[in-house]
Amino acid sequence: MNSDRMLELKFSLLRGAVAILISIGVAAIFIFTVSETPWDALYQLIISPFGNTRQMWNILERMIPLLFTGLAVCVMFSAKQFNLAAEGCVMLGAFVSALIAIYVSMPMGIHPVVAILAGAIVCGLVMLIPSLLQTKFGASVLVSTLMLNFIIQFVIQYFLVHVFADRTQGALMTERFQPTAIIPFIRFETNWGLAVGLVMVVLVSLFLYRTRWGYAIRMVGLNKEFSAYSGMKVAGVIILCQVIGGLLAGMGGGIEMLGYFDRFRWRLLPGYGWNGITIAILAKNNPILVPFAAFFLAYLSRGSMNMAIRTDMPFEMLEIIQAAIFLFFAAEHLMAKTRQKMVVKKAKQEMQSAAKGVDETC
Q: Over 171-206, what HEC string results?
């Protein structure tokens, strides 16, 4: 890594840490304003998630779908494609994987792999809709993908109610998955999807930074007009990044469904896609940083749940913290003077090193 990239990475990490601390400070203000036991609420939010081994494994469990949606949004945002359909793709990938887990018989070990891949492929194909609407007709990808989420939700609801519902149950759900389709646990309720997610982090990083397709995606994100002028097929790159995003989000939905549930019972969008946007912002669209951002968000989720259960503060405090993170990460001039000082210091060091080299040569 060259010195410029190292400096930018250091500043990004510092800026991110400051934004997170400010966000938690904002949450603390709300807690002291509303709660009758503010110190206990803060303890449950910040300290209690590390209170025992089971809670720490629960944080890792909550990370699993966030890894995939964070990666999906990172790929799409790298090309400046503000695609919001990762949320719908999680639900669709989970639904398709669930159907294969119920109605297709396969050997153990192969069954969940085929089910998850099928869900991912369907989501990749569905993502052709907004990408083609954008490249062929100039439709807003922001609007089309936002609407696509609700189309997916209500289509799944229709089939769940009228076709695949198990009428012997007292609530709306499918039949039980075949045992061969269930993803086994590593420990407690954390399944092997965590290992798959970490492998995908490495693969996506290599794709974005070590292949010509990844380079094309990043170049289109930096300057679409220059990319077109230099001969890149911009429309193809836009379609590629959105399809890859759909594949990743669908894979995350399938792993979450087969690793944590025994029947499909989602009637609403699960929320993992929206959290993926937060993770991509925290990670600055860098796949290597996605696990850290996912861990942080899962940690806050576990802490917020502990706080809601054990104190008088609601779980919605997590939404306040996320909103504050959005606000401070979107503030481009946050710590601008600090960045300027870091750049000047680096330039002075390079000038001193250059002058020293000239003196030694003479």
A: CCCCCCCCHHHCCCEEECCEECHHHHHHHHHHHHHH
Query: Is there a domain that residue 186 lies in?
Result: yes
Distances (CA, A) of 151 to 147, 206, 276, 279, 308: 6, 33, 20, 25, 33
**Is 342:11 a contact under the CB 8 Å cutoff?**
yes
Structure tokens at 137: 């007709």
Neighbouring C-beta atoms of residue 25, cutoff 10 Å: 10
What is the Cα 258 distance to its own chain's centre? 19
Instruction: Report the range of poorest mean pLDDT among 166-170, 192-196, 246-250, 319-323.
Output: 319-323
Q: Residue 98: which domain range?
A: 64-290
Asked, for residue 325, whether it belongs to a domain, the answer is no
Asked whether residue 318 is domain-assigned, the answer is no
DSSP labels for 29-76? Answer: HHHHHH-SSHHHHHHHHHTGGGSSHHHHHHHHHHHHHHHHHHHHHHHH
Number of domains the chain contains: 1
Q: For 26-79, how does the pLDDT look when each residue is reduced to its tens digit (9 = 90+)?
A: 888 888 888 888 889 888 888 888 888 888 899 999 999 999 999 999 999 999
